[in-house]
Design a protein that fits this description.
heterodimer, A: 282 residues, mainly alpha, B: six-stranded mixed β-sheet, 33% helix, 30% strand
Amino acid sequence: MTVLARFAIKEALRRRVFTVVAVLTAGFLVLYALGVWQAFKITGDLGAGVRGVNPDTVVGATMFGLAMFATLFLGVVLAVFLTLGAIRGDAERGLLQPLLVRPVTRRELFSSRLLAAGGVSAAYVFGVYLVAMVLTGLIGGWWPGSFVAAGLQLALAVVVVTVLSLAGSVVLASTANGIAVFMAFGTGLTAGLLGQIASALNSGTLGSVADVVSYALPFEALYQSALHDITASSASGFTRFALQLGPLGGAQDGGPGLWLWALAYLGLVTAAALAAFRRVDL
Amino acid sequence: MPALTVSALRKAYGATEALKGVDLEVGEGELFGLLGPNGAGKSTLVKIACGLVRPTSGTATVTGALGYLAELFRFPDWATADEVLTLHQQLAHSDGGAGERARLLELVGLGGEAGRRVGAMSKGMQQRLGLGQAMVGAPRLLLLDEPTSALDPAGRHTVRALLERLRADGVSVLLNSHLLSEIELVCDRVAIIARGELVAAGTPAELSTAGGVEVDTAAGTRHWPDASKEDAPHIVAELVAAGEPVYGVRVLRSSLEDAYLAAVGGE
């Protein structure tokens, strides 16, 4: 299994995927650093602000929350482009057949691709998340109370998208799969917004819709839970109230159940994809 | 034990039956040719034997390790010939190392090209590399689907020599090709498939039929269509006795091509 995973990573290196990703990520982080610097500067110029609200915490948590969203999005782009044609696309190009005739099972091939793409995407997201956190801390002097669990949830979110994209590549052609996964990503984000609106309006129907979509596409719930961890660990009292008024403040805590469901979800999607892959004539 | 045993093999794609109950065996060390028109089911049969396609019913059983060269295949264009073979060595758990890779590249006429990227190779070179890849790990059965379709005459000659060598080494080969002359030259046995059914099988000699005797005389070439090899001396003796000079004598047999056309009904 690791032979094929290593080969897939080698391919990404040789095709300069990682070089392009590194350059564009550096661009994103430079822009983020500039944004953080300006945000803290403007807030500092405004003075003490509202009594009982720590402006540095509000700015730091909000900026870092935005960085987490951007990091997840970039990770999803990477994961989708590493996997969108991994099975059917490669089979149509004749790349898969010579491999599968060797003593390599379809399960091993699928798992290798998942290990390579999921591992790379998760490491990427966690790494960029850490750099964004360090930039926020160094520039604005704000650090989240805890950060490891939130980073891991963000990384797990991108692994969920990876397995969806890989599963899609068993049954869909590359372009169709890419479109489907990005649409699913958008649907997940929309469900997250619906959940926040439902919470604000106390709407049971909207809440139920958001819950169902969150179970079906748990990456959004993981992202929200990561955001919740950051804000909950960094603020209390009026500061926390002020954060909850912002665009990222309504994030829900997933709790241990979310971790379990996300891991079970990975297993279920993998099992379904393998069942489909076994039936595919190459 | 046969290297490949195909029993009552059927494959249907919806309402279309690609294979309608084919039986055949490829013996150990045998070069077996598979012939048939486009869409006859040859590639489907080979893919089922490789495990790439699921049969609707019946079985295709391979004894021992298998090497496969697909009709339509590609290797990653960024990888070098050496990297492609290394990957397949690792997947086949071959411990042949650099020595095996160099030997295989030499065998397929790519000696000195180990560092060349697949993307910088001609189609013929890629097909040669595909042959080398199929032989990684010294499989006991090779399934070659149109292995010479992209090769020039020199390349085909290399492959023919390679097939002879494989036979000498006891490797079984199922050769799926449109090139009847190639099959006739190298194969021990031949099967002809048409419309998903096995319509003829045997050695090339068994499949061809007697075509009479032809004699070149001063009056031109004369043909005795019902005569056999044993009749040739008498025909020549009678012509000489009649005072007719004889310049040449040929005992004719139909070619594999004739047998093929007769078997597939001119498809």
